[in-house]
TrEMBL record, chain A:
PANTHER family: GPI TRANSAMIDASE COMPONENT PIG-T (PTHR12959:SF11), GPI TRANSAMIDASE COMPONENT PIG-T-RELATED (PTHR12959). InterPro entries: PIG-T. GO terms for cellular component: GPI-anchor transamidase complex. It comes from the Eukaryota. It comes from Podila minutissima. Residues 233-252 are annotated as: Disordered. The chain crosses the membrane at residues 630-650. This is GPI transamidase component PIG-T. Keywords: Membrane, Transmembrane, Transmembrane helix. One of its GO terms (biological process) is attachment of GPI anchor to protein.
UniProtKB/TrEMBL annotation, chain B:
Keywords: Membrane, Transmembrane, Transmembrane helix. One of its GO terms (cellular component) is GPI-anchor transamidase complex. Pfam families: Gaa1. The chain crosses the membrane at residues 296-318, 352-371, 383-404, 446-475, 487-513, 533-555. The keyword Transmembrane applies. The keyword Manganese does not apply. One of its GO terms (biological process) is attachment of GPI anchor to protein. This is Glycosyl phosphatidyl inositol protein transamidase complex subunit. Coiled coil: none annotated. The gene is GAA1.
Amino acid sequence: MTAGGVPYGSESSAVKLKQKWHGPLANLVEDLCKVNKMRTTPACVLLITGALLALSSSSSVAASASASASSDQQYVYSSREPIPIAKAPEAFHEELVLKPMNDGSVYSHFQFTTHIGTMMDEDRFDGASSNLFAHYNLFPRSIGQILHSFEVEELHLTFTQGRWQYGDWGYPLAPSAGTGVELWAWLSDDKRQTDANWKALTNTLSGLFCASLNFIDKTITVEPKMSFRNEGPYNVHAASPDNRDNSTAPPRKLRYGSLPHENVCTENLTPWIKLLPCKSKAGIASLLKSHKLFDSRFYSMAIHVRPVCEDELCRVRSLELVQTITTVFDVARHDGSFDWSISGLFERDIEHACPLATTSKVILQLPHMLEPYQYDFNPKPPQGTYFEGTEDNKVEIAVYDLIQSTKESSPFQLAMTWRDAKNRAIRQSRPGIVAHRYFTGYGQERGGLSIEIHNNNWEQIDILYMDTLPWYLKLYLHTFNLQLHGEPFEDKHGEIVKKMLYQPAVDRARPAVLEMAVTMPPKSLIKFSISFDKVFLKYTEHPPDANRGFDVGCAVITANLPRHRGQIGRGGLDHLRVYQDRESSLVKNKRLVESESSGQGDQDEDLAMDQIRVYTETLLVSLPTPDFSMPYNVITLTCTVIALFFGSMFNLMTRNFEVVVPPADKKAKGKEVKK
Amino acid sequence: MGLLSRLSKAQRRQIFGNFVLNWMPRLRRAKALAREFAQIGLKAATQSYTLNTSTDSKSGVNTYAVFYAPRSDGTEALVLSAPWISRDKIRSSHMSKDIIFVVSDGDTEGLQAWLKAYHGNEQNTYERSEEALKIRSGAIQAALNLDFAGTGDYNALGIFFEGVNGQLPNLDMINSVADIAATVAPVELTLHDELVPVTENVTKNYINSLKRMLYMMKYQAVGTPTGNHGLYLKYKIDAITLYGFDKPGWHSQRYGLFRIGCLLESSIRSLNNLLEHLHQSFFFYLLSGVRRYTSIGLYMPPVIILGVSFIFHALSLWGLSSDLPLELEAMARNKNAAVSLPYARRARSVKVPATVVGLSFIAGLASFKLLTTQFGFPGETPLLKLVASAGVCSMLVLSAVSSAQVRHRILKMQAADKTKDAKGTPNNKQDPELAPAPDWITLKTFVLALSALVVTTLSALNFSLAVSIGIVIVWPYLHFRPSRLMLLNVIQTVILVGISPPGLVLFASWWYSMDVSLVLGWILEGYEILGTWLLPTICCIYWPINLAATVMVLLPVS
């Protein structure tokens, strides 16, 4: 069978396949089982049903099934339901998620998703070299051009102001929550120009977003070896595992940089809004009023561009641009009341949905109460609320379709009121992995860094820790030590730290990077500590506010948390598309495929994992600071004295004084003139 | 307005606090406080600690809470601490720095334990154990310590600012509070807890200012902080204590909780708005009033002159101990003296003085060890140890002096024999062999040089301590010398013993009419809990020089 090259949706080949299939169906299924080394019978049974379903269903599924059967890849696909695949070359979705928090804050998450291009028959896909960007409708041209000219395959840029309080708020829907600016990108290394492209990329984005991204230079940029893999299970690169180590695959390189002390304000928001098809004129984006957005406890604004698969086998691919804004409003700040409404939060209303949007939704995640009937919200969604998750992780969700509801009544209103202001029995969120990082010691000569990671799960959790420290902190790796539950722990057999990658810093050239694969025992507290020396900088290397200190960016922990705990609402990094039903079913199917291929054959979602990223605090380190004002005073004083003294003295000494006798007639003339 | 309502609430709570909390056991008290903090929306936690010193054992529970500034990155923090009384809260949306509220237990050791744990130095030994902190914030930029005894009204507000070992906060810290107390929240502000009326009399004002400056210098010299703020300074955190007190009969307007709240809020706001760590103003100053300071440029020259006097005297003595005076004598007699060489002709033995100085330093170190170690025998008290170390030191003096006297006798006899021999051979035209310089001159040179070293070095570290040491020793060390008069020697020795550490301790206990062991216990506590340098400085530096000086006075004259 040579169905591997069968183009998707091609009628004739599908017919041919069908003809071939009818005869040796049983053999084929047997083959399938052998090929995939399926030992468990339930999996085989499932496969048979899957194959039968495939035969009886639409051609597209047949094609995919045949493709999986033909090639010798590791997995097989079986679909439970046919999935309609959007064939439109471009699509735009907008949604707003609102979630009241335990402490009276209201969490809002704006998400705008733009897709471009549906490609077929492309052996190789990368955002840069494809002919995607010949024409722009919804996709912002400025981003498209950047991706094209700097050979960017995947781009993630996040601006954040404030700290995400993991302990109070759980995990955010948007994965990047480190204070400051975080930029990471996968760049095509076809022409071996990654570094030049990265530099150009940071500079261009700097101009585009009015931010100091150009300061992400080689002293800040790192190349993580374990963290920050390609995102999403339906990502192009993640979807084709044979692509990963294949030499024919285009070489790709990862670059990561962050600016912890970058302030985010309206000048960054304006260019961000400009990328939206409706700007802030219509749709949920009309709520984006900078006065209210920046007066919140947490504000995060992101752009994610990545190639994704439109089908399970990744033959239809598209480029996805996701723009998110995440804020946490402190509703209870003024009078302690938890009541809120959309117009109160944003001081604006949604008049109508963005006309260009395929879907436009407002999603309200209701608080998880220990006692019923404590709050009320208005209006109720026409189709009623529904529950997500299992048992004690049940989340009640209300979804409003803006396109419908604004037709009926405009503007769209949503408000929540609490009955009893005193006793709110809200279930506390218990995030599975929480991390804190802090400096120890005092003085300007040496210091230490401590990282505390809590695992609140009853399961053992594998995490990846990545820390980037600037070169002016000289780490001593021999001082690295590990504590478990507050007691020193000798990790001789690598029970906890499975793998450690350390890149020592080079002065004025590159930062130190510490990456670790750590296994957290159930219900544990792990503490790492390491000592360092502080470098005496050249006086020109100090910033203008030298006595403030230097910001050290946050460490990032990547963890796979069990999904059934429902710690992020509905699924980790799938957040970006998770509220779109099509994608979520796509993800589900993809997972199913993966679980089968890995031999588990377990359809239970309990084993599924959500990948989350936990950001630690940014830190401030004070280096030995010279007294800048003293030389300045001395220089100005001496310069003034010398200038005054030298000027007049030199003038006096070099001037030739002579007695000039004015000629008499001239004098007379002058007198005459005067007269 | 929000502040006002919140304050009245706080006031009501404080009545409850004063009645109930004071009588609760420590842990329950801390937990109750933490609950109070949590109720107003702060993250709160408790920290327990124990501390065993050589004299005492202390334990307690600190309560602390963090207000996370919205929108900030949490890299910087301010501390508002109180030895567990005042509980005013500020919650503002314009904060750029986190505010940590610390209600510390005990005297100073509670805050000490908290600060140690905050900087990751928590220990877990028998002597000290501090619980690790559960919640944290960023680098602490500045701290305000409140000391208000209850919720009543006051008519004055005192600023305490001297830290451990005489460290001082940046002067801008005091200046900004002074500004606020003059404008935003009118409060009578003063240094420490003394109110001195300003009069028309210039001399009187001057003397009052001088008194206040000396008052400050006293605190600085002792090195014990005047409040909990002093502990922060060690960690490079600028801090002051605000102390509310009532002086009956004083004319100023009384103020209550509301104005304290205003003052605090304004001060916290001012500190919050700082872009950098305080560094613009002075770190070295002497204050004679809230608005009057003497900068380092003015006060350093006197103490340097003091130090220089020692070194000049030492140099002249060193010169004297050579043969220069002998030549002068010869020239005066118009004798045909040999051509004088530009270097010493008279032998100067360094052995004896060096041994004395070395031994006295060893004795000082031994007495320091003796005072600070716990041996565990019954009836062990600091006083007993002081007596023991005084005994060690006097033994040293006695043995040094007696051996020197014996040696002197022997040498004298040898010299007498030699002159007899010389008389036997009259054709000896060479210069008569000059007798070596007496040991006391060399020893005095050593003592003076060491004193100069100590005074000048200390003046940079702790100015007030250097000045007080300098003033105490300058006259005796410069002028005392062994005399042929027994009475004079005895008087000199008595004075030197009087300014020795045991003598000073006795004097202090007499002056403050306190028990000697109390004074000693206080010094020891300062060293063991707060890490002040007073005891090591006195034992290891001051006492050895004093011992050497005593030995010097008792040495034979020629």
